């Protein structure tokens, strides 16, 4: 692991525990047993760390959505793939998911705009999958916005709920959440 990766790893933990705004570069240096000035040899700012974490997750979701869009399958199968991707990254990187959900508003300038573009494009792609499923009769004729909200609300907050649980198998979690989220909308 490079020094930069180590810094980002420690920052994820601190940002999740205390929130981005409450963590200073001095706090990060202290957690790593470094001098604050030496962090700047590897990272130019705290905002750079935040942007790397958040945009890394946003690009992951965008890349995964591109794979889902290429699948020549029904809407239900595409939605299952989306749910599984969300759960996978939540289980692998819960700190980053928490930071995306809680601290994206602290991004500035180009980083902020890039994140919003990626998030909006992802949501629009998911909306299209849902709408196509409704139009094709695969999904119940419900409001696509309500379905989108229900799916994303559950998936975006999974990190917080899962953190308080132990011993739940990842595959069982995928199976159960997929069934519960889709049962109400599949014809």
UniProtKB/TrEMBL annotation:
The keyword Transcription regulation applies. Residues 1-61 form the HTH tetR-type domain. It comes from the Bacteria. Residues 24-43 bind DNA. Keywords: DNA-binding, Repressor, Transcription, Transcription regulation. The keyword Repressor applies. InterPro entries: Homeodomain-like_sf, HTH-type_TetR-like_transc_reg, HTH_TetR, KstR2_TetR_C, Tet_transcr_reg_TetR-rel_C_sf. This is HTH tetR-type domain-containing protein.
């Amino acid at each position: 692991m490079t020094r930069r990766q180590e810094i980002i790893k420690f920052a994820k933990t601190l940002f999740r525990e205390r929130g981005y705004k409450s963590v200073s570069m001095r706090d990060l240096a202290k957690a790593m047993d470094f001098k604050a000035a030496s962090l700047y040899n590897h990272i130019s700012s705290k905002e750079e760390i935040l942007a790397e974490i958040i945009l890394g997750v946003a690009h992951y979701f965008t890349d995964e959505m591109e794979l889902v869009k290429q699948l020549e399958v029904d809407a239900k199968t595409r939605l299952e793939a989306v749910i599984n991707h969300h759960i996978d990254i939540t289980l692998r990187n819960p700190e980053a998911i928490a930071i995306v959900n809680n601290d994206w508003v602290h991004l500035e300038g180009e980083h902020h705009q890039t994140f919003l573009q990626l998030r909006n494009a992802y949501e629009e792609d998911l909306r299209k999958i849902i709408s196509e499923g409704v139009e094709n009769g695969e999904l119940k004729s419900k409001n696509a916005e309500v379905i989108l909200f229900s799916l994303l609300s559950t998936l975006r907050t999974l990190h917080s709920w899962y953190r308080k649980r132990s011993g739940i198998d990842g595959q069982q979690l995928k199976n159960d959440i997929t069934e519960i989220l889709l049962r109400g909308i599949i014809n």
